[in-house]
Automatic annotation (TrEMBL), chain A:
Species this protein is from: Mesorhizobium retamae
Segments forming a coiled coil: none
InterPro entries xref list: PhyR_sigma2, RNA_pol_sigma-70-like, RNA_pol_sigma-70_dom, RNA_pol_sigma70_r4_t2, RNA_pol_sigma_r2, RNA_pol_sigma_r3/r4-like, WH-like_DNA-bd_sf
Pfam family for this entry, one: Sigma70_r4_2
Segments forming domain RNA polymerase sigma factor 70 region 4 type: 101-153
UniProt entry keywords in alphabetical sequence: Sigma factor, Transcription, Transcription regulation
Domain PhyR sigma2 positions: 9-62
Top-level lineage group: Bacteria
Name under which the protein is recorded: RNA polymerase sigma factor
Family per similarity comment: Belongs to the sigma-70 factor family. ECF subfamily.
Automatic annotation (TrEMBL), chain B:
Domain of life: Bacteria
Name this polypeptide is given: Anti-sigma factor
Length: 171, 263
């Protein structure tokens, strides 16, 4: 196996984590990883020497993700999840703590653009400059998405905590 | 020292390691003097840690063999069909919002042109995933009330529904429930064998196309489905392929015979 393929292989765990943060459902996330790998392998020649494999692969995956979100959005199917639906939200096969489930559900409920910006920097550890390159947006836009994303995430979690305490009072 | 004014923006810069080193001390001082900002900063930090923790397992899992084969250039590892992660995402949305009792978004129109059959199968699988996993609340009407269930569900979905006898396949009726499907309704009948394996029959009169097939994704239950104009039926389960196919054929035959009988 050549070096480039070995480098791609080494990035798979991170690609899977990014995909899971974007999509929540594990099978769906792995399908996104698979699409990303297929596209990367088909375009190995586009990979500039010296470019970090991680950045290159994340850029490809991000394009795949955003394309599909836009297609769904144009058809009027943008997902606005309510956290009320926790009983109905089926996550049957995976074992998660309640805290993990809450924060992943909340992450899934913020807008896809903000989610991608926040995860790229706060989870994947890219610098603002790198993240802006991966997402194809100016640094200023990235910053505003990150700060709004954090606010939105926090508001959802606060809201959830408030409802829980209301339920206890009503009982 | 520069006495530049800090603001909320700097909280994010600091958290993300983008604040210049020479400003860090001044920033910390500013934070101490602004309890509200300090609280914000620590909430964001806590959220980040929680997110990292929740996602950490992805890094520890072994790389799936199919990915290794794919990268190694094994042609067999390529998906023979377009992968469907976005449809899965749509189904997840359907589930999540369906349970809220508010607006149902549906999966109509997502993805590919001939998506009606896929969508139908996805819906049937989604229903199975939610309800077959429920021990005590899997059904609305139990098998002990079979006759009532049959007439109720028939009236709701608008076709004559029978409850196929699958005892020769080892399955007993558990009960049934009414569900949303696309823009309309579906009946779901749940069966169980002595080992606790469950299968569901998902029936609707909403179908607008002709198709039949098997919808299988890795690590998910499989749906065997038939669509006919004005009739759709999917049999869903996590059984070995051949057994599921046999049960499905048997169930389908009985459903069709039942539906065609005029009262």
């Amino acid at each position: 196996m050549d070096d480039r393929k070995a480098a791609i292989l080494g990035e798979i765990p991170r690609l899977r984590r990014y995909a899971r943060a974007l999509l929540r459902d594990r099978d769906a996330a792995d399908d996104l990883v698979q699409d990303c790998l297929e596209r990367a392998l088909a375009r190995l020649d586009n990979w500039q020497t010296g470019e970090s494999p991680r950045k290159w692969l994340f850029t490809i995956m991000h394009h795949l993700f955003i394309d599909q979100m836009r297609k769904a959005g144009r058809r009027g199917e943008v997902a606005m999840l309510s956290l009320d639906g926790d009983e109905a939200l089926a996550v049957p096969v995976q074992v998660e703590s309640i805290a993990s489930r809450e924060i992943l559900d909340a992450l899934q409920a913020i807008t896809p653009d903000r989610r991608a910006a926040l995860v790229t920097v706060a989870i994947e550890g890219f610098s603002y400059a790198e993240a802006a390159g991966i997402l194809g947006i100016p640094a200023g836009t990235l910053m505003s998405r990150i700060s709004r994303g954090r606010d939105e995430l926090r508001a959802l979690l606060d809201d959830r905590a408030r409802r829980r305490s209301l339920k206890v009072v009503e009982r | 020292m520069t006495a530049r004014d800090f603001n909320e923006r700097d909280i994010h810069l600091a958290l993300d390691g983008e604040l210049p080193d020479e400003e860090r001390t001044a920033f910390e001082t500013w934070l101490k003097a602004n309890p509200e900002m300090k609280a914000r900063s620590s909430r964001f930090r806590t959220d980040r840690e929680a997110l990292r923790l929740a996602l950490a397992s992805a890094l520890e899992e072994p790389v799936p063999v199919r990915f290794m084969r794919l990268v190694a250039g094994d042609a067999g590892a390529r998906s023979s069909q377009r992968s469907r992660w976005w449809q899965g995402a749509a189904a997840a949305v359907l589930l999540a919002t369906g349970g809220v009792g508010g607006y149902l978004l549906g999966t109509r129109g997502i993805g590919i042109e001939d998506g009606a059959a896929d969508r139908f199968a996805e819906e049937a699988i989604a229903a199975y995933v939610v309800y077959a996993a429920e021990k005590r609340h899997a059904v609305e009407v139990p098998a002990s009330d079979e006759e009532h269930m049959r007439s109720w569900l028939s009236a709701r979905i608008g076709l004559r529904l029978v409850t196929p006898d699958l005892t020769t396949e080892g399955f007993q009726l558990v009960g049934g429930r009414l569900l949303p499907a696309g823009a309309g309704k579906a009946a779901m009948l749940l069966y169980e064998d002595t080992e606790g394996n469950r299968i569901s029959l998902f029936v609707t009169s909403e179908s607008g196309s002709y198709a039949k097939g098997t919808y299988a994704e890795n690590n998910r239950p499989t749906a065997v489905y038939w669509l006919d104009k004005g009739y759709g039926c999917a049999i869903v389960g996590a059984l070995p392929q051949e057994r599921l196919a046999a049960v499905a054929r048997n169930a389908y035959r009985q459903l069709i015979e039942g539906a065609e009988k005029r009262v």
